[in-house]
Amino acid sequence: MTSRFLNKNLAGGALLDIGVYAISLARYFMSIKPKQILSQIRFAESGVDERAEMATIALTLHKRAVIAFEKGYIEIMEYPRADEEKIVYTSSGTIETIVAGKRSDALQYEMEDMEEAIISRKKDMLLTNTLDVMDIMTEIRHRWGMYYDSEKNL
Questions:
Q1: Of 40, 65, 72, 116, which residue is 20 to 30 A from 152 by alpha carbon distance?
Q2: Quick check: helix, strand or coil at residue 39?
Q3: Which among 79, 19, 15 has a CA at the least distance from the CA of 44?
C-alpha cells in the first residue's frame, strides 16, 4: 500500500497512471471527442482505482494495448514504452512484427519530439485531443466520486 501506484495523493490508480495513454490512443482514432462515456470501477483498499474499464478500453496497471480492426488486430506490449508491436491478420493467422527504437530510450524520444515541436513551432501536436483526454478523465473521476483535495473547494 506504500507504492505510488496505490497512493491517491500521488495521483495513483489505473486511470491516471496508464489510463491517459489508453484514452489518448483511442482518441487518436476518433474524429471527434465521444459524447457519451461509460465506465466501470474497482477500487483498491487505498481508495485509488485498481481497475477501470471504459467502452472498449480496459485499463489495468499492466501496459498492453490491443487495437482491433475488421481483418486483424495490433498488439503492443509495454505500451506506451514499447519497442515492438505485432500485427495479427486473423483471416490468415499471419503475424507481422515491427521493431522500432529501444524501450529504454523512450523518455529521450519524447523529450526530443517536444523540443523539436517547440523549436519549429509545430502545430500538429494534437492539443485538442490532449484537452479532450483531460476532460474525459476528469468526467470519469467525478462520476466515480473521486476528487482531489484541490477540487473540493471549486
A1: 40
A2: strand
A3: 15
